[in-house]
Amino acid sequence: MLETVCGDPRKIALDEDTMDSSVDWPQSPRSQAPRAKRASIPGGKGLAWIAGLFVSLIAVIVTTVMAVALAASVVVIAVMGAALLLLAPLALRARRAVKAKADPGPQLLEARHVGGHSWVAYGWDRRR
Q: What is the pLDDT of residues 70-109, one digit of tens each?
C-alpha cells in the first residue's frame, strides 16, 4: 500500500534539491486560510520605540536602586562586624576583671508556718 501512495520507497529523495516540485503535497488547513492583517499600532513603529525606551529606562532605574540597597546592606554588615571585633577584647578584659564575691556562708531565713503547705518568709529582701 505504501508503494501506491508514495511510489517506490527506495526512490524517495531525502535531499530537498532532488525533490520533485511538481508533487502536490497536502497542506494544513492553517496554510490555506487567508492571512489576517496585523493590527497596526497607532503612531507606528516610533511609538513602540518610545515605549521600549521608557520600559528600559524604568528597568535600569529599578536595577540601580536595588544595587545601591545591596551595597548599603553589605556596608552595614561590615561595620557591625568591625564593631564586634573591636568590642570583643574589651568584653573579655572586663569579664576577667570582675571577681565573684566571697561566699558569706549560708543565709538563714525566718519562716512561719501558716497552715497546710504554706509558709511565710521574713527578712529575705533585707541586705546585710
A: 999 999 999 999 999 999 999 888 877 777 677 666 667 7
C-alpha cell at 68: 545601591
Contact 109, 122 (CB under 8 A): yes
**Among 28, 29, 12, 30, residue whose Cα is nearest residue 20:** 12
CA 102 to chain centre: 55
Q: The whole model's pTM is what?
A: 0.41
Q: For the residues of 33-80, what is the DSSP string, one character each?
A: SPPPPPPPPTTTHHHHHHHHHHHHHHHHHHHHHHHHHHHHHHHHHHHH
Q: Where are the domains positioned within the chain?
A: 67-93
